[in-house]
Design a protein that fits this description.
By secondary structure, the protein is of the alpha/beta class. 31% of the residues lie in helices and 24% in strands. It has one domain (11-63, 81-125).
């Protein structure tokens, strides 16, 4: 597991559960995740920005790369918005999607951010 902005707050067991119950069953291949036993996704960085972001999970289906992010409540809203915008744009360039995996109790937080900012993402409740 590598460090990146917001990466340390994610629980490895939750990421593994998302891979087993959501990503793999949907047919995604070449899965990378920021947990042990998986290759780590590439760090992403905006131009003129020192902060780097590591997606929680990436996967490829039909030649299209998609990104999966656990959406957990945090005080670091600016960083969450920046990361999601970046992942959403990159997914669009690669003809993929950004999926926000929302555990119980975090849906209102996620919805509030998506209502306030122009982020193209599909929500999956778990």
């Amino acid at each position: 597991m590598e460090d990146g902005i917001l990466t340390e707050v994610k629980k490895p067991t939750l990421i593994n559960e998302v891979i087993d119950k959501i990503v793999s069953p949907r047919g995604f291949k070449k899965i990378k995740a920021n947990v042990e036993d998986f290759d780590t996704p590439a760090k992403l960085q905006r131009e003129r920005d020192e902060e780097s972001y590591i997606p929680d999970i990436t996967g490829v289906i039909n030649g299209r790369k998609s990104y999966f992010e656990l959406s957990l409540k945090t005080e670091k809203i600016r960083q969450v918005v920046t990361k999601w915008k970046l992942l959403s744009r990159i997914a669009g360039f690669k003809r993929g999607k950004l999926y926000l995996i929302v555990p119980r109790g975090h849906y209102a937080f996620t919805n509030r951010i998506l209502d306030q900012y122009p982020i193209e993402a599909k929500i999956i409740r778990v």
